[in-house]
Write a structure and sequence with these properties.
Layout lengths: L2 H10 L8 E2 L2 H6 L13 E5 L2 H14 L3 E4 L14 E5 L6 E4 L4 E4 L5 H8 L4 E2 L12 H6 L13 H4 E7 L5 E3 L3 H10 L1 H16 L1 H10 L12 H4 L3 H9 L8 E8 L1 E2 L3 E9 L2 H13 L6 E8 H6 L19 E9 L2 H16 L5 E2 L6 H12 L1 H8 L7 E6 L5 H14 L6 E5 L4 E6 L6 H21 L18 H5 L1 H14 L54 H17 L3 H17 L6 H5 L6 H9 L5 H9 L1 H18 L1 H14 L25 E6 L2 H5 L9 H11 L2 E4 L11 H5 L3 H18 L7 E3 L2 H12 L9 E3 H9 L9 E6 L3 H6 L2 H10 L1 E5 L12 H4 L1 H7 L3 H4 L7 E3 L2 H11 L3 E3 H9 L6
Parallel strand pairs: 2-4, 3-4, 19-20, 19-21, 21-22, 23-24, 23-25, 25-26
Antiparallel strand pairs: 1-2, 5-6, 6-10, 7-11, 8-9, 8-10, 12-14, 12-15, 13-14, 13-17, 16-18, 17-18
Helix pairs in contact: 1-3, 8-11, 8-20, 12-17, 17-18, 21-22, 22-24, 25-26, 25-31, 29-40, 33-35
EC number: 1.1.2.4
Cofactor: FAD
Protein name: D-lactate dehydrogenase (cytochrome)
Length: 938
C-alpha cells in the first residue's frame, strides 16, 4: 500500500467501521473483478452505507490525492468498475425506493437492483425505462451512470430522457438536489464558476453549427461513447446540463446518490414472432419499415440474429421447425415483440405487422404468439447466444461482448462488414446480434490474452472496428455498454478534436486532478484498453466456463457477508494459478487461510447461482468438492441405518430444550459461540418436538405419504402438531387415502448425508427409500407425496440420476396439492396478509408458480420477498447462523406492517424465517388445512 493510501486508510477508520474496510489479499482480489475483461486490484475496499460516508471518502481523496471508483453491482462490461486505488462499494443503506404519483414517478437510491424497482412499479402497471439485459443484477447507480438501455427502451426511454431529478455529490463535497429548490439556489451561488463553465461550453458548441448538428445526429443513435455533450444543446439551464452530464459519466464527474425517474407503461398484452430471411439486405430493409411503424403498431423490440448465431443455437429445443433446417451464409432472423393495452389492440398490431413483413418476402415465420411460454422459448433463443460462446470457448480464454451502433440505413452493411472483420482476424466463434430498431449490434467472441500475439490480434480487431464504425459510418463505438477503459482510447477518434476537447474541459471542471475513476472515458493512454487484461487460468472444470459476469450474486445468501459465487471462482482461479506456477508464497498462504471460511464454510451450496448463471455454473458444487469427504463416514453410516433412533433422540432433545427454555438456550449458545465458532446457535424460536405420526385409516384413492425425517422431528406451532398431521387432514378431505411406506420412521432421503459428503451413507439411505417406496406404491402404481421441499428435490434428483426406480411417480408437495388436491377443496377462510418464501428447492424443481398459486388461494394480499435462498441450508442455520441472518436482513423491511403470517415448503427454512420475521412461517399444508377446514371443524 502506498504512503498516501496508508494515510487515507488510517483517517477513514475514524468514519467507517473497520469491518467495512478491507485491505487483505482475498478481499482486494475478489473485488478487483467486474464483468469486464480487465482486472485492477484495489489497495482499499470500503463499503459505504450513506451519503455522509461518501462525503468522507471524497474529502479524504482530495486531502490525500488518491483516486476513488464507486461500484454498484459490478456488471459493467467495459472496465469502468475496477480500480487500483480506492474502491467504494454501495451497501444496503443505498437500497431504497419510493413510488410517487400512483406509479408515474419513482425515487430510487443507487443500490437498488433494477428489477426490484420494476417489482415496486408492477402493481401500477408501470416500469422504469432502461431495460438492460443485466436488469436482474444491475443496480440503479450503474444503470444511470452508464446510461444503460436495452432491448425495448431505445433512445427515448433511457436514463437521460426519463430522469426527472437527481441528487449528487461532487468531488469538492458539494451536494446538489435538483428536486429541492433551496439546494439548487445554494448550488448556483456556491458553484457559479462551474455553471458558467458549462454555459460557455454550451455556447461554443452551439456556435459550431456543423458540430452541433453532428452531436444531435449521433445522439439519435444509441451512444455512450464519451460524455453526453448533447446535454449542452438540449438544455438552456446549466444546472440541467450538469445533471444530465452525470448520466452516462461512469462515476468520473460525481456520485449519484438518488435519482427520480419518469416511469413508462408496462403493457399487459404482448406477442412475439421469429421471422427468417434468406437475404440480409432485405431483412434490414424490413427493420427500417418496422422502425417507421414502431409507435403506430406497438413494436417494442426487434432483435436481429445473424446466420452464425442461428447455427449456434440449433441444438436448442422448442424452436420453430424452420430454424432447424439449413441456414445459408446470408440468412438472418428477426425476433419481434409487439405490445398493447388490450387484446383487440394487439390483434390489430399483429395484422398490420404481418402485412408489413409480407412486403419483404420472409423465408419463413412462426407467426405472432401471445402464449407466454411460447414467447419465452423464442426469447430464450436470443438470450442463449452469449452462453453459446461462453460455454464452448477454450479454457483460459474470456468472453468479450462489444456493442456498436450504425445508422439504421447502413445496418446491413454493418453486419456484413463486421462479419468480415471476424473472419479477417480469425475469430471464427464470433456471433453477431442486436437491437435492430436502433442499429445497435452486439458481437460476442472469445479472445485469449495469455500471449502477446493474442493481445495483438485483439488490438488489430479493435482498431479495425473503430475505423469501420466511427470512421466510415460515423456510428457509435459504444452504444449502451459505456465507454469504460475499453473504448476510452478511441473517444477522440470517434468524436474528433473539437468534441474531444469539450469533453476534456468538462472533466476538468468537475475533477481537475483526475481523482474520480481515472482512465475511464478520458485518457491520454492510447494503449489503456490493452493493459490490465484479466487472466482466466484454468481452476476446475466445474467453473472454468465462468465469465465473472456477476449475474449470480443477487441469488447468493453470502454475497456481501463473505464472498459471492463470482468471487469464490476468482479467488480459486488465483489460488490454482499460484499453486501451479510457484512463487508469491505469502499471497498464496493468505488466500488459502481466509478461503476456508469465506468461500467454503459460508456457501449454502443450494445451486441458486447456477439458476442465474448464463452458462449454468454451480459454484456450490465446487465448494462441496473442496469441503472434502466426511471426516466421520462410520458415524454417518450408523445414522443412516438407525434413522428411527436418531429422530427419536432428536425429539427427546427438543423436549428437554423446551423444558429448559429456548430463550435461555439461545442466550447461552450465543455466549459460547462468541468464544468458539464451532458451537451451534440455538434459535430463540426453536420448534417443539413433533407429535407421533397420525394413524392412517379409511378409504379413498391411495397415495404414498413420505414424511421426511425433519418433519418427523419438528412440530409446527405451539401445539406440537406435525406437518404430517396437516397433510393427512388435507389428503383425506380431498378423497385420498394416505399410506406410509414400510419402516417409514427409519427412512431418509439422503440429503443430510449428501450435505456432509458422506457418499456411502447417502447411497445406503437412497437404496432403503427406493425399496420402501416401490413396495408402498405397488411398483409405481400409486403416486408418492414428498412433504418437504429440499427432500423432494433430493429424491427427484436421485431418480433422474438413476438411483431411484424410474417407475416411481414422485410429487413434491406444491405440485401434488395444485394438481390433485386444490380442485377438490372448498375454502372457508383466507388470511388477510400473507408472506410467501419460495425456497431454493422449489425454484430448482420449477414449482415456484404452483406454490404461489396455492398461497394466493389462501389470502387477500400476498407478498413474495425476492430472497432466492434464505441461507439456512440444512444445518448451516445452526452452525453458520450469520449466513441465514445476512440473507434475511431485508425480510422485515419489505413485509407489510400488518402481515403476521408466512408460508413456505421447507421446514428448515421456516425456522430461520420465523426467527427473523418475528412471526411464524408455517408449511403450505398447514395453511391449506386451516383455510379449507369447515367452520367448527378440525
Amino acid at each position: 500500500m502506498s504512503p498516501a493510501h496508508r494515510a487515507f486508510h488510517q483517517d477513514l477508520l475514524a468514519h467507517l467501521p473497520a469491518a467495512r474496510i478491507h485491505t487483505d489479499p482475498l478481499s482486494t482480489l475478489a473485488y478487483g473483478t467486474d464483468a469486464s475483461f480487465y482486472r485492477l486490484r484495489p489497495q482499499i475496499v470500503a463499503k459505504v452505507e450513506n451519503e455522509a460516508e461518501v462525503g468522507h471518502i471524497l474529502r479524504l481523496a482530495r486531502e490525500h490525492r488518491v483516486a476513488v471508483t464507486f461500484r454498484a453491482a459490478g456488471t459493467s462490461l467495459s472496465g469502468q468498475a475496477v480500480s487500483d486505488s480506492v474502491l467504494a462499494l454501495l451497501g444496503d443503506g443505498f437500497n431504497r425506493g419510493q413510488v410517487l404519483d400512483g406509479g408515474a414517478r419513482i425515487r430510487l437510491s443507487p443500490g437498488m437492483i433494477g428489477a426490484h424497482a420494476n417489482a415496486m412499479l408492477a402493481p401500477y402497471g408501470r416500469k422504469i425505462g432502461p431495460d438492460p439485459a443485466s436488469i436482474n443484477t444491475a443496480k440503479i447507480g450503474g444503470i444511470a451512470a452508464n446510461n444503460s438501455s436495452g432491448m425495448c427502451c431505445g433512445t427515448r426511454d433511457n436514463s437521460y430522457h426519463t430522469m426527472l431529478a437527481i441528487r449528487a455529490l461532487l468531488l469538492d463535497g458539494a451536494v446538489l438536489d435538483t428536486a429541492d429548490a433551496a439546494s439548487v439556489a445554494a448550488f448556483r451561488a456556491s458553484h457559479a464558476g462551474l455553471l458558467d463553465g458549462l454555459a460557455q461550453l454550451s455556447r461554443e458548441l452551439a456556435d459550431d453549427e456543423a458540430l452541433a448538428e453532428r452531436v444531435r445526429r449521433k445522439y439519435r443513435l444509441k451512444n455512450t461513447t464519451g460524455y453526453g455533450i448533447n446535454a449542452l444543446l438540449d438544455f438552456a439551464d446549466p444546472v440541467e446540463m450538469l445533471s444530465h452530464l452525470l448520466i452516462g459519466s461512469e462515476g468520473t464527474l460525481g456520485f449519484i446518490s438518488e435519482i427520480t425517474f419518469r416511469t413508462i407503461v408496462e403493457h399487459p398484452h404482448k406477442a412475439s414472432a421469429l421471422v427468417l430471411f434468406d437475404d440480409l439486405a432485405r431483412c434490414c430493409r424490413a427493420v427500417s419499415a418496422l422502425s417507421a411503424a414502431r409507435q403506430r403498431c406497438g413494436v417494442s423490440a426487434v432483435e436481429l440474429i445473424d446466420s452464425r448465431s442461428i447455427r449456434a443455437v440449433q441444438n436448442n429445443s422448442g424452436l420453430p421447425d424452420f430454424l432447424y433446417h439449413t441456414v445459408g451464409p446470408g440468412s438472418s432472423c428477426l425476433l419481434i415483440e409487439l405490445r398493447a393495452g388490450g387484446a383487440a389492440e394487439l390483434a390489430g398490431h399483429r395484422a398490420a405487422i404481418d402485412q408489413l413483413l409480407a412486403d419483404y418476402a420472409p423465408q419463413a415465420s412462426s407467426g405472432f404468439s401471445g402464449d407466454a411460454r411460447q414467447c419465452e422459448s423464442y426469447w430464450a433463443l436470443r438470450k442463449g447466444l452469449f452462453p453459446a460462446v461462453g460455454a464452448a470457448r477454450p479454457v483460459g480464454t474470456t468472453v468479450v461482448i462489444e456493442d456498436v451502433a450504425f445508422p439504421i440505413e447502413h445496418l446491413a452493411d454493418g453486419v456484413a462488414r463486421l462479419t468480415g472483420l471476424f473472419d479477417k482476424h480469425g475469430y471464427d466463434e464470433a456471433l453477431l446480434f442486436g437491437h435492430a430498431l436502433d442499429g445497435n449490434l452486439h458481437f460476442v467472441f472469445a479472445p485469449g490474452f495469455d500471449s502477446p500475439a493474442e493481445v495483438a490480434r485483439y488490438e488489430a480487431l479493435m482498431q479495425d472496428v473503430s475505423d469501420l464504425v466511427a470512421g466510415e459510418y460515423d456510428g457509435s463505438l459504444k452504444a449502451e455498454h459505456g465507454t469504460g477503459r475499453n473504448v476510452a482510447p478511441f473517444v477522440r477518434q470517434e468524436w474528433g478534436d473539437a468534441a474531444w476537447n469539450i469533453m476534456r474541459r468538462i472533466k476538468a471542471l468537475f475533477d481537475p486532478e483526475g481523482l474520480l475513476n481515472p482512465g475511464v472515458i478520458i485518457t491520454d493512454n492510447a494503449r489503456l484498453h490493452l493493459e490490465n487484461l484479466k487472466p482466466m487460468p484454468a481452476a476446475d472444470p466445474l467453473v472454468d466456463r465462468c465469465t465473472e459476469c456477476g449475474f449470480c450474486e443477487p441469488a447468493c445468501p453470502s454475497h456481501g457477508l463473505t464472498l459471492s459465487p463470482r468471487q469464490r471462482i476468482v479467488a480459486w482461479r488465483r489460488i490454482r494459478q499460484l499453486q501451479r506456477e510457484g512463487g508469491a508464497a505469502d499471497e498464496l498462504a493468505a488466500l488459502r487461510a481466509d478461503y476456508r471460511y469465506r468461500a467454503i464454510d459460508t456457501c449454502a451450496a443450494t445451486g441458486m447461482c447456477a439458476a442465474r448463471c448464463p452458462v449454468g455454473i454451480n459454484a456450490g458444487a465446487l465448494m462441496k468438492r473442496l469441503q472434502g469427504a466426511s471426516s466421520r463416514p462410520g458415524a454417518a453410516m450408523f445414522a443412516a441405518r438407525r434413522m428411527g433412533l436418531m429422530t427419536a433422540a432428536a425429539r427427546g432433545g427438543l423436549r428437554l430444550a423446551h423444558w429448559f427454555g429456548p430463550e435461555r438456550l439461545h442466550a447461552v449458545s450465543q455466549r459460547l459461540r462468541s468464544r468458539r465458532k464451532i458451537i451451534p446457535l440455538i434459535p430463540a424460536s426453536l420448534p417443539r418436538a413433533a407429535a407421533p405420526l397420525p394413524q392412517l385409516t379409511g378409504g379413498g384413492e391411495p397415495v404414498v405419504l413420505f414424511v421426511s425425517c425433519v418433519n418427523r422431528v419438528l412440530a409446527e406451532g405451539a401445539g406440537g402438531r406435525s406437518v404430517a398431521g396437516h397433510a393427512v387432514s388435507l389428503l383425506r378431505r380431498a378423497g385420498f387415502h394416505p399410506v406410509y411406506p414400510p419402516g417409514h420412521n427409519g427412512l431418509c432421503c439422503g440429503q443430510p448425508f449428501a450435505s456432509a459428503n458422506a457418499a456411502a451413507a447417502q447411497g445406503d439411505a437412497e437404496r432403503a427409500l427406493n425399496r420402501a417406496l416401490l413396495r408402498a406404491s405397488r411398483d409405481g402404481l400409486h403416486p408418492v407425496y414428498l412433504d418437504n421441499g429440499p427432500c423432494a428435490a433430493r429424491v427427484k434428483q436421485a431418480q433422474a440420476d438413476g438411483l431411484l426406480d424410474a417407475r416411481l411417480n414422485l410429487f413434491d408437495a406444491a405440485s401434488f396439492l395444485v394438481e390433485r388436491v386444490l380442485p377438490r377443496l372448498r375454502f372457508h377462510r383466507r388470511r388477510d396478509q400473507l408472506a410467501l418464501h419460495i425456497p431454493c428447492s422449489a425454484s430448482s424443481m420449477g414449482v415456484a408458480g404452483a406454490l404461489t398459486q396455492l398461497a394466493e388461494r389462501c389470502c387477500e394480499r400476498l407478498t413474495v420477498p425476492d430472497i432466492a435462498c434464505c441461507g439456512f441450508a440444512g444445518d448451516k442455520g445452526f452452525t453458520v447462523p450469520e449466513l441465514n441472518a445476512h440473507s434475511l436482513r431485508r425480510l422485515k423491511p419489505v413485509l407489510p406492517e400488518a402481515c403476521r403470517h408466512g408460508v413456505s415448503m421447507s421446514r428448515t427454512c421456516q425456522i430461520g424465517l420465523t426467527e427473523h420475521a418475528g412471526f411464524e412461517y408455517q408449511s403450505i399444508e398447514a395453511l391449506l388445512d386451516f383455510c379449507s377446514a369447515p367452520p367448527g371443524g378440525a
